[in-house]
Amino acid sequence: MTDALYGAIEAGGTKFRIAVGTSPDLIADTTIPTTTPDETIGASIEFLEHYAGQLKAVGIASFGPLDLDPSSATYGSIIRTPKPGWTGTPFRELITDALGVPVAIDVDVGGAAIGEWTWGAARGLDTFIYMTVGTGVGGGIFAGGRIHHGMGHPELGHIAVAREPDDDFAGHCPFHGACFEGMAAGPAISARWGERVTDLVDRPEVWDLEARYIAQALRTLTYVVAPQRIIVGGGVNRNEGLLGLVRDKLSDQLAGYGTNPVVDSDLTDYVVSPEFGQDAGLVGAIALAAGLDH
Ligand code: ZN
To answer: Does residue 117 lie within any of the structural domains?
Structure first.
């Protein structure tokens, strides 16, 4: 008798990673390019079929937007994506039908948040936020022991920020111009300063401004959600020292006001990095599958 395993699919716009395991220590994994749904989901199923006798459940952490309403006829499908051929793909149903086990699905940041909650930087918490600032800004709100979906799912990247007085950049969001993502995601940083983000690491003024915009968003989320912790990941956070700056700016902006005790702390335990950087999605997908098994 072999041990039971969970399957995991991290579905990204350019690549899929598929794995099996029972914890963040994955037993086997593979990476395939994202092409057509038939090819890419087909290859994912083929990989997982090798473990057919052992698989208890599968978790999917996918690019979106997704239909996450469990009462919907198209629950677990990809909706309205600009990615050619993928709109309407019944992702969850295809995996369920092929493998015959329960399948959990969430957006990539939702999966990553569950992974951090199960094994990482949010263990034991009841309410926290997981945010990535990279090519875009994404985030999940975990409240009362579960990921909050609401109508569709929250879009933390598109909340409003106030223009910093020393910044005349118009903003980079095709919908809102100067929203949080439009001012703080990687492409906005490059467009504002006229250089690639990797060539800007030694320019303190770049990161001082970046930290102020991230702090503005965290201030809003602190007051709206009252989380116990905010995890900030993504490519921008690879810049060493950025989170320290964000904590300083956030502390200034909170100005000691609020019932949440974090307002009087140094924020070291409040604004933190994720524990599972590159593997956040895969670990999250394993955690989603494990959650079905409780
Ligand atoms: Zn926007």
So the answer is: no
Q: Which residues surround ligand 1, an ion (CB under 5 A)?
A: 158, 173, 175-176, 179
* Structural domain contains residue 116: no
97: containing domain: 5-111+278-291
The Å distance, Cα 180 to ligand 1 centre, comes to 7
Total domains in the fold of the chain: 2
**Residues 222 and 209 both lie in one domain:** yes
Per-residue pLDDT tens over the stretch 24-76: 999 999 999 999 999 999 999 999 999 999 999 999 999 988 999 999 999 99
Q: What is the DSSP string of the chain?
A: -PPPEEEEEEE-SSEEEEEEESSSS-SEEEEEE---HHHHHHHHHHHHHTTTTTEEEEEEEE-S-B---TTSTTTT-B-S-SSTTTTT--HHHHHHHHH-S-EEEEEHHHHHHHHHHHHSTTTT-SSEEEEEESSSEEEEEEETTEE---SS---GGGSB-PPPTT------BTTTBSBHHHHHSHHHHHHHHTS-GGG-TT-HHHHHHHHHHHHHHHHHHHHHH--SEEEEESGGGGSTTHHHHHHHHHHHHHTT-SSSGGGGS-STTTEE--S-STTHHHHHHHHHHHHHT-
Structure token pair of residue 203: 């320019």
Q: Does residue 60 sit in the same domain as residue 92? A: yes
Task: Tell me the pTM.
Answer: 0.91
pLDDT digits (tens, 9 = 90+) for 164-175: 999 999 999 999
Q: Are residues 107 and 206 in the same domain?
A: no
* 252 and 130, same domain (yes or no): yes
Give me ligand 1 centre to Cα 169, in Å: 14
Cα(189) to ligand 1 centroid in Å equals: 15
